Amino acid sequence: MYYVNPNIKNLYRTSYNESRKDYIRLDMNENPEGLPVQFFEQVMGSITPEYVAMYPEMTSLVEQLAGYLDCEPSSICLTNGSDDAIRLLFEVFGESGKKVVSVSPSFEMYSVYMKMYGMIHAPVIFNDDFEVSLDSVLDSIDSDTGIVVLLNPNSPIGSPWQEHEVREIIKKARENCALVVIDEAYHYFSPKTFIHCTNEYDNVLIFRTFSKMLSIAGCRIGYIISNEELVSEIKKACSTYPVNCFAIKFAEKILGNPQIIDALTEIERQGREYLLDKLKKYGYEYHFNSGNYVLIKSKKDPKQISSLLKEKNILIKTYNQPVLTDWIRVTTGSIDVMRIFWEQFESVENG
């Protein structure tokens, strides 16, 4: 047998192999309907054979993002979606044997990559009220800590982090020579940002993506924002062309048309409020923490609900973690999409 990195050999991975293309996808926090059709066709119409034939050029998008975020281009690194940003984080800064502090449950890929690079997870577990204390996070950060991960907001549970909480965590991490990642995948749904902390502290990285509100998950594009020193180290580990030409074109056009972002934001808000109103009216216990998803405590077993909805061409998310076994997670979308979900959800709950 040829050599296999033991961290990889012993790593357990799950994968979703079934096609999702004919379903209403409310399971992975994508936009169920995507970009407005007219805008999509306009962007596609600007893509020429010559453009596709060239290797991707990222400089103009980086400069556009720098103006949009009011930072220097040298503070930005484009990535092949958030997954690539997480991989680069651990590849560059992940010291084998060191701890990674994060809340749990959270986005699974952080756990995957920390194991891949030989780090040790030190999770701060949510209680049954979906809460963790700041003191518990601070107490977990010590001289053995290499990286602290904060998702703002955290999917699927928890409250958005407050300014004073984040600053205390950054300072405690800095005292112990640890980096702090603030994952803002759900920015726009939750517009509070901590980008300003990258100017004040030398141990902070911000992750962003175009997959959620900006609705181009299939293009695979995101970016890291930090100080020039950390970004320059990350770029050493990047592939030569981490982002494809289609992703670049769509990202440029979206940033250049802020009315598209405003429209997407309003469409999701209206649909989410429709769903929350229904949940309140019919007495459902739910949890919403400013992302494009809502946790619902269903009357029937969540796995059964998921199976029955799948038969009706609707996908939702369920969990195996003890704190979440009684809950389903539903991605929010337009009123039309939420109306379809609600009608079918009521049908399987009461049928």
From TrEMBL:
GO function terms (MF aspect): transaminase activity
Keyword Transferase belongs to the record: yes
Cofactor dependency: pyridoxal 5'-phosphate
InterPro entries: Aminotransferase_I/II_large (IPR004839), PyrdxlP-dep_Trfase (IPR015424), PyrdxlP-dep_Trfase_major (IPR015421), PyrdxlP-dep_Trfase_small (IPR015422)
Keywords annotated in UniProt: Aminotransferase, Pyridoxal phosphate, Transferase
Gene3D superfamilies: Aspartate Aminotransferase, domain 1, Type I PLP-dependent aspartate aminotransferase-like (Major domain)
Residues annotated as domain Aminotransferase class I/classII large: 55-338
Keyword Transferase: yes
Xref: PANTHER family: HISTIDINOL-PHOSPHATE AMINOTRANSFERASE (PTHR42885:SF2), HISTIDINOL-PHOSPHATE AMINOTRANSFERASE-RELATED (PTHR42885)
Full protein name: Aminotransferase class I/II-fold pyridoxal phosphate-dependent enzyme
Species this protein is from: Paenibacillus alvei (Bacillus alvei)
